[in-house]
Write a structure and sequence with these properties.
The mean pLDDT is about 95. The radius of gyration is 12 Å and the shape is globular. It has a 5-stranded mixed sheet with strand order 1-3-2-4-5. The two termini are about 20 Å apart. Helices cover about 40% and strands about 25% of the residues. It is an alpha/beta fold and about 110 residues long. The chain has a single domain, classed as Glutaredoxin (3-Layer(aba) Sandwich). Belongs to the thioredoxin family. It comes from Apilactobacillus ozensis DSM 23829 = JCM 17196. InterPro entries: Thioredoxin, Thioredoxin-like_sf, Thioredoxin_CS, Thioredoxin_domain. This is Thioredoxin.
């Protein structure tokens, strides 16, 4: 399950071995395509990756901090540091492969 992330809980939320933040907006059609993919993957990878979502309309300062220019954007954090950013729509298989590859790098 993806948890809502705000300025209030951001620092605590990303302070894990690996965290994925989904930057989205309610009006973003591609975000609606990615939402169920990430929801499924958040359950599959629940033991290894912390999953959250950031509504850019409500948390513009977080989006600016991580230079989110398009949506949906996935930002990968390791130990509280943003290390990579992926923008666009991907299949569940593509994202699962990406997450598996990144877990091997920790």
């Amino acid at each position: 399950m993806l948890k809502n992330v705000s300025q209030d809980n951001l620092s605590e939320f990303i302070n894990n071995d690996m965290t994925i933040l989904d930057f989205w907006a309610p009006w973003c059609a591609p975000c609606k395509i990615m939402a169920p993919v990430l929801e499924d993957l958040s359950e599959e990878f629940a033991e290894k990756i912390n999953f959250g979502k950031v509504n850019v309309d409500n948390e513009e300062s977080i989006a600016k901090k991580y230079k989110v220019m398009g949506m949906p954007t996935i930002v990968l954090f390791q130990h509280g540091k943003a290390i990579e950013k992926v923008t666009g729509v991907y299949s569940k298989e593509q994202m699962a492969h990406y997450f598996t590859r990144k877990l091997k790098e920790i």
